[in-house]
Amino acid sequence: MTVVLLLILLRKVKSVRLVSFLPMMACYALVFLQVFGIASETLVYASPFNNIYSLAVYAYLGKQIPLKWGEPSEESVLINPIYSIKMLLAWMIVLTLAGIYLMRRVKEVPTEELREL
């Protein structure tokens, strides 16, 4: 939503359809990095998509999940669900505030530009 508001504000309405798929593509890429053990601990905690995935797996398994799903003999850092929840709440607050700020700045767009969507 925030990206779409930013595009409307910049009068780049023709790009809305393409840009609206960027979060979905980022979600696939970031979660696959975590699943295959390539992602760092910082990336897992900083990305809201990875936080959602980590919390879903934590809720399903009922225990903390390792950063890398390797062999059982491997020692791996466990992902703390409390940190994931805190980072997810921080992302929600930041994106909500950014959305409110951008909504106040949005101006009327001519209907001719919107027809091409």
Describe the structure.
With 117 residues, the chain is mainly alpha-helical. It has one domain. The chain is built from 7 helices and no strands. It has helices spanning 2-9, 16-19, 22-35, 41-46, 48-61, 81-105, 111-114. The longest helix is centred in the C-terminal third of the chain and has 25 residues, at 81-105. It is elongated and about 60 Å long. The mean pLDDT is 84. The chain crosses the membrane at residues 15-36, 81-102. Keywords: Membrane, Transmembrane, Transmembrane helix.
In short:
The chain is mainly α and 117 residues long. The chain has one domain (22-107).
- Classification by helices and strands: mainly alpha
Helix-strand topology string: HHHHHHH
Spatial extent as radius of gyration: 18 Å
Kindly state the number of beta strands. Answer: 0
Number of helical elements: 7
Q: Domains counted in the coordinates: how many?
A: 1
- The helical percent reads 55-70%
Strand content: under 5%
Separation of the first and last Cα atoms: 16 Å
Task: Give the biggest sheet.
Answer: none
Transmembrane segments: 15-36, 81-102
Keywords: Membrane, Transmembrane, Transmembrane helix
